[in-house]
Amino acid sequence: MNSLECITPCILVFLFALIGCGGDAQPPLGYMENGTHGVEGKPVIELSGVLERTTLQSTNIYMLSGGAVTVPSGTVLTIEPGTLIKGSSAPRSRLEVEIGAKIIAIGTREAPIVFTSDKPEGNRSAGDWGGIVINGNGIGHYKQKGNASDSSGALRFVRIEYAGSAFGDGHLNGISLNHVGAGTVVEYLQVFEALDDAIELYGGNVNLKHIVVSGFRDDGIDWTQGYLGTIQYLICHKTDGPCDRGIEGDNNPDAPNQQPRSKPKIYNATIVGIDNEGILLRNGSAGTITNCITMNCGGAGLMVDSTSVMYPSAVDGMRFTHNIFSNNNPDLDDPAKRIAESETTLIAQPQLQDIPNWDWRPQPTSPALQPANANIPVAPFLGAIGTEDWTTGWVRRPD
After folding, report:
1. Using an 8 Å Cβ cutoff, are 269 and 375 in contact?
2. How far apart are the first and last CA of the chain?
3. Cβ–Cβ under 8 Å, residues 194 and 215
4. How does pLDDT run across 251-303, given as a tens digit for each residue?
5. What Å distances lie between residue 250 and 2, 197, 200, 276, CA to CA?
6. Distance (Å, rounded) from C-alpha 136 to C-alpha 347?
7. 149 Cβ partners below 8 Å, 6+ apart?
8. Which of 63, 219, 293, 368 places its Cα 20 to 30 Å from the Cα of 276?
């Protein structure tokens, strides 16, 4: 390399630091591509390696590249409402938040934060990029002495599109929450078209609320390794591609009786059109299923595998009550029938407004709106949505 070739990149980096960041005094990260990315004339900033920049601004578009893009311990990554972040597929990129780091991604209904593929609209598909991985300091089978109230930040009004990896790349999902504590906020989150699971939970006790998962190729929600959180107001819907289960719950495939036992609480879920089981508990997992609607599944609406039934303490940790099952095959398997509270478990058509057009509200005559059928302390209706549709304005529907 001659002296001119050596000096030129340095000059470019210096100029970018002076004019590319405007009033942003943070260290520069990556480079600005030539031209724009075709969205409102916004400049494109490439992010790779370990993040130095701590705020992503809605005036830019960001490109994750080069594999894992890491938020290091001690760093808080803040993402403004309306920010667009794209993940590259060659090599498959992902955003990874280390233990001790935080991500604050708080969008709004009018300006959600969107993580999506770098491919053009119309050419995107599940698995284009690797998704988001958040590593917390919560308690689970790999971290027996963690902090149950640990916080890894907050995600609110966030969409994650076309992510995941079924093979290699560390078994990536739309979003993986590894031993994430209850101090973390996850609300109004959609995972759209994920190649593996939409959301996977490894231990921890983070709570999820107002969640939409659709177009996943494996499971909508998958937990293991002692997960103990609460999931409320969940829509889990198959779209055009194949899928496995709506919810797959494990304790530990290698040690089903290991403590702490996976025993989450699922309230107000609507699970529709899954290829196999709507909900499956296995490998020692327990759980509460309350105020839920499960319908049109190719397998059982609710199935408890022998790998959970064989442990009395797992069965003692199961409660199935105030649920509607409709047109599943069968609605409940035999162990689930024995555990369910039959007087409040309805085999009935839930009468939702317009499932093909994503209107999940019950019709006025629906049994989902009858107070006698609902666990009133949790919510006065069954399923993810009552009379008010919280998905309006920020959720992406199938193309």
Report:
1. no
2. 50
3. yes
4. 999 999 999 999 999 999 999 999 999 999 999 999 999 999 999 999 999 99
5. 59, 14, 11, 16
6. 40
7. 181, 182, 183
8. 368
